[in-house]
Amino acid sequence: MEKRKVALITGVTGQDGSYLAELLLEKGYDVHGTIRRSSVDFRERIAHLEGKPNFHLHYADLGDSMSIIGVIAKVKPTEIYNLAAQSHVQVSFDSPEFTADVDATGVLRVLEAVRLLGLTETCRIYQASTSELYGKVEEVPQNENTPFHPYSPYAVAKQYGFWIVKEYREAYNMFCCSGILFNHESERRGETFVTRKITLAAARIKQGKQDKLYLGNLGSLRDWGYAKDYVECMWLILQNEKPEDFVIATGIQHSVREFCYHAFKRVGIELEFHGEGIDEKGIDKATGNVLVEVSPDFFRPTDVVNLWGDPTKAKAKLGWNPNKTSFEELVNIMVDNDMAKVAAEDASQKVRTNLAEYLEKGIVK
Ligand code: NAP
Ligand code: F7E
């Protein structure tokens, strides 16, 4: 008899959840996703999947044990991908308790539900862990043995998630593991993460719909990959013989400033950066106009500034290719998507325009 392939994805409406759902449907899984009640019913990233026969949605919240137990009991998944989280680092300073409840205790709720329901032998669990655990880094580049130094309420909560997964693996022999994923972006990335904020602004500035882009720390260094490539790794981690944790990264590092340079270049604007710190500016070489400025509104109480992952273990043990999509290709995919999106926005789409203004003024981070 063919093995049941039933996946439950918490956070299916997010960037990663939507790509993972597509991947698992292609692989012949029955895919179940959790959603939260919202006053707006349109789920942009998964709208194209709703109505497919093997794709099912359930209401559940990581802050609500009963809903988690209910959905796991009903679906009896063979694989759980726990992607749900309050995932914005800056927001975790504004909502630290909520972040702890969802990103730390929420992980425990999923593990305990699987255990209490007697599914430990039949259900494998993937936990969405993060390079933010390395935080105020103690080693460059970072691998599976690098000590953690979490440096935000988000990272501290995720650190609990990481350790409780390890604890359940060791205490109850459960197949549960963490992917320590470095930043991964895409045309579906939330609009207040720095990459998407930049690609949208480059498109809007090019099309005369925005004057300037305000950013925080331009010197911050990240190892940025393409989300579509990274969800493949989540699946590979659960197909591995043994439950193990893996660093998932490209092994290549760039600054926020460099990301800006490449994004604007794609729309035909060459930026030159002059000045330092708060006075640094990105200037259009052709016109002399200042297009990028630094605003302290986007500085964090503690900022992680030197993330650079070493994906050697994932390459060797999972056969994963960390460089399928290059940094330049990633920037181009995002910018091209946003050029089309912005071109399609008309004057009546006030909401989007307002968001751009809020982003500029630092009201929405
Ligand atoms: P995302 O786009 O922000 O998606 C987060 C998902 O979690 C959304 O579906 C959201 O639902 C859901 N969610 C939030 N709070 C919830 C709650 N209380 N109960 C149930 N669901 C809840 O994040 P992402 O970029 O796809 O990241 C996926 C996971 O990987 C997250 O755990 C994130 O922390 C982690 N991670 C991301 C990166 C990255 O670079 N993208 C790197 C390392 C780790 P709504 O749509 O209803 O808000
Ligand atoms: O910031 C700097 C900011 O918000 C990247 C999440 O997916 O990846 C993500 O967290 C860097 C930081 O992502 C602005 O200070 C400068 O140093 O795009 P971000 P993040 O904080 O790295 C990790 C791996 C996760 O796990 C998280 O879930 O860019 N930066 N200027 C800015 N950041 C933002 N958002 N906005 C700015 O204007």
Q: What can you tell me about this protein's structure?
A:
This protein has 11 helices and 15 strands. It has helices at residues 15-26, 65-75, 89-94, 96-116, 153-172, 194-206, 227-239, 256-266, 312-318, 327-344, 350-361, and strands spanning 6-10, 30-35, 55-59, 79-82, 124-130, 176-181, 184-185, 213-215, 221-222, 225-226, 246-248, 254-255, 271-274, 281-284, 290-294. The strands form 4 sheets. A 7-stranded parallel beta sheet has the order 3-2-1-4-5-6-11, with helices on both faces. A 4-stranded mixed beta sheet has the order 8-15-14-13. It has a two-stranded parallel sheet with strand order 7-10. A hairpin with a 5-residue loop joins strand 14 and strand 15 (290-294). The N and C termini lie far apart (51 Å). NADP nicotinamide-adenine-dinucleotide phosphate is lined by residues 10-11, 13-17, 34, 36, 61-63, 83-87, 102, 128, 130, 181, 183-184, 190. Residues 10-11, 13-17, 34, 36, 61-63, 83-87, 102, 128, 130, 181, 183-184, 190 line the site of NADP nicotinamide-adenine-dinucleotide phosphate.
